[in-house]
Amino acid sequence: MRPERQHQNWRSEAGSRLWLAGLIAAMKHAERPDVRRQPVAPEILLELRAQLALTASLRTLQISSLRH
């Protein structure tokens, strides 16, 4: 799926619910003791940091555009 299509789906109510359900499932998986004991690969941490930075920058742009 193209990134612009993913962004559009996420903005819909169904997309938001799907995204939230996925987040909750991932958090439940991550809280399991057997999973928590496993080391995280450095490349996964880099990808996660990049994703978090992208999300923050998108939020900043959206807030900025609303004020103008």
Question: Strands, helices and their partners?
Answer:
Layout: H1 3-11, H2 13-30, H3 33-36, H4 42-67
Protein model, in words:
There is one protein chain. By secondary structure, this protein is mainly alpha-helical. 84% of the residues lie in helices and 0% in strands. It is built from four helices and no strands. The chain has helices at residues 3-11, 13-30, 33-36, 42-67. The radius of gyration is 15 Å and the shape is flat. The N and C termini lie far apart (32 Å). The model has no long low-confidence stretch (mean pLDDT 77).
What is the H/E string? Answer: HHHH
Helical proportion? over 70%
Note the gap between the termini. 32 Å
* Estimated share of beta-strand residues: under 5%
Overall pLDDT? 77
Compute the gyration radius: what is it? Answer: 15 Å
Low-pLDDT ranges:
none
Profile the largest sheet. none
Number of strands: 0
What is the helix tally? 4
- Which structural class matches the secondary elements? mainly alpha
Shape field:
flat
Would you summarize the structure shown here?
The protein is mostly helical and 68 residues long. The chain has helices at 3-11, 13-30, 33-36, 42-67.
Q: What labels would you give this structure?
A:
mainly alpha, 84% helix, 68 residues
